[in-house]
Amino acid sequence: MSVDLSGKVAVVTGSTSGIGLAMAANFARLGAQVVINGLGDEATINAAKNEVSAAGSKPAHYNGADMRDADAITSMINEAEEKFGSVDILVNNAGIQHTARIEDFPKNRWNDIIAINLSSAFHSIAAALPGMQIRNYGRIINVASVHGQVASVEKAAYVAAKHGIIGLSKVTALENATQEITCNSICPGWVRTPLVEVQIKARAEKEGIDTEEAAKRLLASKEPSLRFTTPQQLAEAAAFLCSDATSNMTGTTLTLDGGWTAQ
Length: 263
Ligand code: NAD
Fold this sequence. Notes:
Elements: E1 9-12, H1 18-29, E2 33-37, H2 42-55, E3 61-63, H3 70-84, E4 89-92, H4 107-135, E5 138-143, H5 156-175, E6 181-188, H6 194-207, H7 211-222, H8 231-240, E7 253-256
Parallel strand pairs: 1-2, 1-4, 2-3, 4-5, 5-6, 6-7
Helix pairs in contact: 1-2, 1-8, 3-4, 4-5, 6-7
The protein binds nicotinamide-adenine-dinucleotide.
Residues 14-20, 37-40, 66-68, 93-96, 116-117, 143, 145, 188, 190-191, 193-196 line the site of nicotinamide-adenine-dinucleotide.
């Protein structure tokens, strides 16, 4: 599959690390002007910027909008349009996790997860749609999760946010169905990024085992393939959702979960 994104502008939230960084670099490789976003110290942000810039031919631009801040998100989209002329591809990828039973779930963690993993996508989509509608082109990709389709214990906020973002994707798709604007969700199973590394370490400590054994057990608990999906595979999936092959695919999910949700 060859995808040519030259002339396109892509904004990827949460792209200083993990899945978002791989997607941003791949969009750059395919010719897009990329705007990256995410938290991190100066070294982390510079490393991400350099990686994305090196993958393509245009320097990546960084916007540090906090995904809990609706005004900052709107400004990020407006800045991308002013600086580069359009936002053609929008990937809502920023996300955090916290695990605890509902009765013990810290209220501030609930609020942060709903804000970062769900509400931020509403704000960025609302800001990007008017321009996409005028130009009659848009590819909106929401990074959901298998936890948008099924649940696990101790992940109330994450599961609620991920189910929510799949619903938001469907409404976005329907409201723009007659235009060249698509909105789909990508649903990964386990991906070995910093977000999951925390869960692997927690399991290793709880069960008194090393991290590699904990990673194996994590996979075995949910994912029949016993393999992690890689950030690069998810980057290719995002590119697929920007290809001509998927121009009539909207309001649906692309699930890369090693069989997790087939059970
Ligand atoms: P990660 O921790 O490597 O990356 C998360 C990114 O989000 C980072 O760039 C971080 O700086 C950014 N971020 C966090 N809080 C932010 C805030 N307030 N404002 C702006 N940016 C913020 O994690 P990842 O695994 O690459 O996760 C990316 C997405 O993929 C998330 O939405 C996550 O829920 C989803 N996902 C991950 C997995 C997995 O197994 N790793 C599985 C399914 C879905």
